[in-house]
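Hello,

Our lab assistant flagged a job as stuck in the queue for most of the afternoon. It eventually completed. Since we weren't sure the result was trustworthy after the delay, we are filing this so someone can double-check. Below is the sequence as submitted and the structure that was eventually returned. Let us know if re-running is recommended.
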Amino acid sequence: MRNNSGASALAQAVAFVSEHWLKLLATSALVLAPCYWHRRIEAGDLGSHLYNVWLAHLIERGQAPGLVISFLWTNVFFDHLLAGLAKIFTIHGAEKIAVSLAVLIFFWGAFALAAAAARRAPWFIAPLLAMTTYGWTFEMGFFNYYVSLGLSFLSLALFWRGNRFERFLAFVPAPLMVLAHPLGLVWLVAAAFYIAVAEAVPQRRQILLFLVAAGGLLLFYFYLQRHFVVDVEENPLYIFTGADQFLLFGARYKIVQTAALIFVPASILWDVIRRRREPGVWTAYAIPLQLFLLVELGVILLPDGIRFPGHPAALALLTERITSISAVLLCCLLAVMKQRKWHLAGLSAIAAVFFWFLYQDTAILNRMEAQVEQLVATLPPGQRVLGTIKPPAGSRVLIQHMLDRACIGHCFSYGNYEPTTGMFHVRALPENSYNMTDGDSTASMEDGSYEVQARDLPAFQVYQCSLTGTDLCLRPLEEGEDNDRLGIHPPQ
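-- returned structure --
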């Protein structure tokens, strides 16, 4: 149902901020803590984003012939934000500020959506929202998609509880969403349309709306299968419930996933049973539950990757990305519950374990990156460096981009993937001296099976040189050898 209190949703939001500003600041500070608990923010592609901002600065100064900047309309918002901040601060200062802004956009966007679902501020779900904020999407460093989702959550909350004019305003951030990643706007439009129709029909007929939407997803599945080359998700689909966002650097995160999968449904079921005769209970759960089930149906039906004509790289890892939405919708379902003290206690305990694991694992990555920095610092400036750095056993998070960040200001990460994809603002022209020019080469380089060519030399390889996977070494490469010939990797 829409906002019937008389005051506009924006007016209520302003009043809420005015009344709870201290609590909002304190919560924001706690949520940002993982961005500052180590020297470096370990988040997958983040190192590559920073490295390419540095490359763009070199290109602008004419210091990287053969590399060019392409002006794109999407998948570049976070990169522009980093580049703009880097002109004011250092590039590493820009990193902290830009990631902090992204975290706040995602967290408070998700909080606003949960508040719209519950019609009140659901402070007790903050621990679960914080876990989702630092889940798989964040740790992979998909910050353009991450920011786009955060903006879409905020806009959808305004649409859900706003008046007619505010529903129009909800789409004002659409250009920013597209500049970041188009999937954020796709989710906003689809969810807003569903909510608008669901509120316009009697609740008993919402099942028909749900079935029509499910049928639309099925038709879209057949359309994609017929018109595009698609990649199938290799992992079993039953793990992608939203709680898979908490499976990060190893098997022990299954403790967190399992705890969330038990606690969240059990809490909702207990609330429904106890309040089943209260008026409005089923209505409150209806739309969040329908949205969650439709998103999960999308997880099952949609491919993991789509290859578009004319693009050398696929739109990849869709299954894993979509579950960020699933996780936030689970938070919306929890928000509808009648709050009890044990809810906050249980969620806080699960979050404490999650963040303790995350602190330990990112500390290890920080120490590894410090080794990379020390190794490349021994090289003369401007050298080409390749790196095959594989994650620990059971990890779902890639870590090879620590080489990219370590090279900033000193060397060139020769196998950086961004200039080869055509999906980022830095492009590599043939015969340039700083970057590989095709995706197959960068993929084989990361895997360690790239055969070194004469044109690549001189070049050096950063490789793992002990069974722990945490000890790194550096050596010069020779023509004809596989780049990671001496690498010793932890079992996968």
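-- support follow-up --
The delay was a queue issue, not a problem with the job. The result is valid. Residues 341-377 form the longest helix (37 residues). The first strand starts at residue 67 and ends at 69.
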